[in-house]
Design brief:
Elements lengths: L1 E5 L3 H13 L3 E5 L2 H10 L4 E5 L7 H11 L4 E6 L4 H8 L5 E4 L4 H11 L4
Parallel strand pairs: 1-2, 1-3, 3-4, 4-5
Helix pairs in contact: 2-3
Length: 119
């Protein structure tokens, strides 16, 4: 299973990437939205895990692009800035998992397993 991970916090990105790889996932990790969007155009992903607040773009742009070019991909949004208006905006896209920071790794794995077609 291929995962696109977008997280600007270096240590969190590295930790998630290493943990997911140890579980057998193929992970492409980026620290900014622009590079991640370019990767979405070139590669197919089963999951997109993205921080909502990135240094260069908003998480809505990642969601919009993913839904447009890879509608089969499951999306998980992680953020420390999830106010009700942002959550409502994300929920309009359909079934997207939303995880508030700080979170336990098990929460992320639970969201991946729940959304996996082979659950």
């Amino acid at each position: 299973m291929r995962i696109l991970l977008i997280e600007d916090e270096r240590l969190l990105r590295w930790s998630l990437e290493q943990s997911l790889k140890k579980m057998g996932y193929d992970v492409q990790a980026f620290d900014n939205g622009k590079a991640a969007l370019e990767s979405l155009e070139k590669h197919t992903y089963d999951f997109v895990i993205t921080d909502y607040r990135l240094p260069d773009i908003c998480g809505f742009e990642i969601i919009n692009k993913t839904v447009a070019v890879q509608p089969q991909a499951q999306i998980v949004v992680i953020s420390a800035y999830l106010v009700p208006s942002i959550i409502e905006g994300i929920e309009k896209f359909g079934h997207i998992h939303i995880i508030s920071k700080p979170f336990r790794f098990e929460e992320l794995i639970g969201a991946i397993k729940e959304a996996s077609p082979s659950k």
